[in-house]
Design a protein that fits this description.
Largest sheet: 4 strands, antiparallel
Helix content: 25-40%
Number of helices: 6
Order of helices and strands: EEHHHHEEEEHH
Radius of gyration: 28 Å
Distance between the termini: 95 Å
Strand order of the largest sheet: 3-4-5-6
Shape: elongated
Strand content: 5-15%
Length: 182
């Protein structure tokens, strides 16, 4: 009787290569307890072979390992498991089966799907689009706008503590000058 190795790829019923839970944990950097919990609660279900009773081994595909790694990275970034679960459920409800094919970004609280440079979707708000500003684009726009507008030379160096005369049209600067004068 030939025994299968405990690590490395194994072959599932349909000939697909899979990895046992111990190998998945080592590759991804999670505990077996996390892996087991995520499988039992259907966060990341092994696609090669799920456990079907006592003594059967789950087999994870390479893509499953990628998804597990993404979940771990989101957790490491501070996103709660509840929010990760909601984000993945939103993606699955829209028919996204292969989570390894998309780009996710996070601010440590929420999870966004980046569909294109112009389209980012908040997965925790039911797939609501969010507005992003590319700073580089704004920088170039301002440069272009300023090329047609007049500029003024900067005033010469002022002694320390000396304040410039407030602009008559700048009410805030005038208030500050009056407050300093006291």
């Amino acid at each position: 009787m030939h025994e299968q190795p405990l690590e490395g790829p194994l072959v599932g019923e349909d000939g697909e290569v899979g990895y046992r839970g111990v190998t998945a944990c080592q590759a991804v950097g999670i505990s077996y307890r996390q892996l087991d919990y995520w499988a039992r609660t259907t966060l990341v279900v092994p696609s090669v072979r799920d456990a079907s009773g006592s003594g059967t081994q789950r087999l994870y595909s390479f893509r499953d390992l990628v998804v597990l790694k993404v979940v771990k990275r989101l957790l490491d970034a501070g996103v709660s498991l509840q929010n990760i679960r909601r984000a993945i459920e939103t993606l699955r409800s829209r028919g996204v089966d292969d989570l390894a094919e998309i780009t996710l970004i996070s601010d440590g609280t929420t999870v966004y799907e980046c569909r294109s440079p112009e389209e980012v979707v908040d997965l925790l708000q039911g797939g609501q689009g969010v507005f992003g500003i590319a700073i580089g684009g704004a920088f170039k726009e301002i440069q272009g706008s300023l090329s047609h507008l007049p500029s003024e030379p900067a005033a010469g160096p002022q002694p320390v503590g000396a304040a410039a005369a407030p602009d008559e049209n700048d009410e805030l600067a005038a208030r500050r000058a009056r407050r300093r004068a006291g």
